[in-house]
Automatic annotation (TrEMBL):
Domain annotation Glycoside hydrolase family 3 C-terminal: ranges: 316-524
Name of the protein described by the UniProt record: Uncharacterized protein LOC104596995 isoform X3
Keyword terms of this UniProt record: Glycosidase, Hydrolase
Family, per entry: Belongs to the glycosyl hydrolase 3 family.
Length: 527
């Protein structure tokens, strides 16, 4: 009889309190098994022997890291279950946490519903663990640079950036990821005050803190050059699990040395592993380690797409409606004779979904299943209405057409992280020229597809009749048509202040010189 089968293994008894199970399992673990639990490795280097023999705590898929191109939900479940089988064959049978960046739906899986905001879907409902990120202040870095420096007093940091985490904690979030960024020059991955004193101490967080992808490597220059320091500084600061993700043997050997030499106290290791095990027990992984195959057919199902469509409707923000507010352009008449729809973003599912969609950076084109905004417009109008689509209209487009109105859809390319760093924030792809051309000839609604506010020059804003911020709506573009044709009213309110120019950034309500183009919480209605 193996140790994991012995009746006295309290941690195997689901009727025992979680804390009792955690302490029992921890007491049975050898040092390397504990350190294995603190290690997260990438799917591409994961193999059954490593997971089993090293007691690896977590396996993840980085952006676009699928079992193979076009892999179905079943293929993903097969992969996860193969890793899990190896984990439960380890000496103590501790299951892995499988991690993926489900940033807006299970966006790595072809055919899954892609939402306009952070809603995670998996092949199971009960064992999904949320990760709040990136703690803290990465949205307030100087000049908005990814992995930059947030220059604020603690009071300002707490006032402007802490509230979302308080909400997540109140909802029972289990894991929190440290930010690549710095606070007043100190990397968050090595900030003991914020990770331990504030998050775990003052806020009482009982889950575990995880690093970002090679996040600890960034504590030395060149990245990872002083790996022992990177590991020691981050673990001692309060990082519990490290997203290694590739050189896990080197990481674990170094961590063993640091513990045995006393640079990282055993009490810190035990605290980290307790937190990780607590999350696994609460999630029910020991009782239900494998994927729930009964739910596979629901991935990308009609119910999920309707929910995503509703999310699109509710996220749209109406910023302008009529040059004269007494004569609004919206909602549109669906029985109009002829409508011009313009711009590459009107009929491009990839641009509509943005980054973290099938691949890490995202891409243009019909990358998955769904409806574009143009598809939605064509479905919404009456049978007698002619919809003419021009990706790049010219003056000749308007000759003899007599358009009732135009819908110009412009926005950004796909990006994530540092690829999105932009010191200008103007509308790309000649979007400004297109808006100017069309709005000079036809009453025009401009729909912005972007992951952030873009700079709108006063003369350009004056040209357009109406303006909608649609953000990155995901795979269900018909949700946009639902609102602009009046089936539903606008509900969205700006979740941030919209600057007049990039020199105003960062821009927060309450700043002494607060003068946005549109203030925090702004949003018009049509009814």
């Amino acid at each position: 009889m193996s140790k994991t089968e012995e009746p006295q293994c309290i941690y195997r008894n689901s009727n025992e309190p979680v804390e009792v199970r955690v302490r029992d399992l921890l007491s049975r673990m050898m040092l390397r098994e504990k350190l294995g639990q603190m290690t997260q490795i990438e799917r591409s280097v994961a193999n059954p022997s490593a997971i089993r023999d090293l007691c690896i705590g977590s396996v993840l898929s980085g952006g676009g890291s699928a079992p193979f191109d076009g892999a179905s939900a079943t293929d993903w479940a097969d992969m996860v279950d193969s890793f899990q089988k190896a984990a439960i064959q380890s000496r103590l049978g501790v299951p892995i946490l499988y991690a993926t960046d489900a940033v807006h739906g299970h966006n790595n899986v072809y055919g899954a519903t892609i939402f306009p905001h952070n809603i995670g879907l998996g092949a199971t409902r009960k064992n999904v663990i949320a990760c709040a990120k990136h703690f803290i202040g990465d949205g307030g870095t100087d000049r908005g640079i990814n992995e930059g420096n947030t220059i604020l007093s603690f009071d300002e940091l707490e006032r402007n950036h802490m509230e979302p985490y308080l909400e997540c904690l109140s909802q029972g979030v289990s894991t929190i990821m440290a930010s690549y960024s710095s606070w007043n020059g100190r990397k968050l991955h090595s900030d003991y005050f914020l990770l331990t004193c504030i998050l775990k101490g003052k806020l009482g967080f009982k889950g575990f803190v995880i690093s970002d992808w090679e996040g600890i490597d960034r504590l030395s220059q060149p990245h990872g050059s002083n790996y022992h320091y990177c590991i020691s500084a981050s673990i001692n600061a309060g990082v519990d699990m490290v997203m290694v993700p590739f050189r896990y043997n080197e990481f674990m050997d170094a961590l063993v040395y640091l513990v045995e030499s006393g640079e990282i106290p055993m009490s810190r290791i035990d605290d980290a592993v307790e937190r990780i095990l607590r999350v696994k027990f609460v999630a029910g992984l020991f009782e239900h380690p494998f994927t729930d195959r009964s739910l596979l057919d629901m991935v990308g199902c009609k119910m999920h797409r309707k929910l995503a469509q509703e999310a699109v409707r509710k996220s749209l923000v109406l910023l302008k409606n009529g040059k004269d507010p007494a004569k609004p352009l919206l909602p549109f008449d669906r029985k109009a004779q002829r409508i011009l729809v313009a711009g590459r973003h009107a009929d491009d599912l990839g641009l509509q979904c943005g980054g973290w969609s099938i691949t890490w950076q995202g891409s243009s084109g019909r990358i998955t299943t769904g409806t574009t905004i143009l598809d939605g417009i064509k479905e919404a109008v009456g049978d007698e209405t002619e919809v003419i689509y021009e990706e790049c209209p010219s003056p000749a487009t308007f000759v003899g057409q007599g358009f009732s109105f135009a819908i110009v859809i412009v926005g950004e390319a796909t990006y994530v992280e540092s690829m999105g760093d932009n010191s200008e924030l103007t509308i790309p792809f000649n979007g400004i020229d297109m808006v100017n051309l069309v709005a000079d000839r036809v009453p025009t609604l401009v729909i912005l597809i972007s992951g952030r506010p873009l700079v709108l020059e006063p003369w350009l804003l004056e040209r357009m009749e109406a303006l909608v911020a649609a953000w990155l709506p995901g795979s269900e573009g018909r949700g946009v048509a639902d609102v602009i044709f009046g089936d539903y009213d606008f509900e969205g309110l700006l979740p941030m202040s919209w600057p007049r120019m990039v020199d105003q950034l960062p821009l927060n309500k309450g700043d002494q010189s607060y003068d946005p183009l549109f203030p925090l919480g702004f949003g018009l209605r049509t009814k």
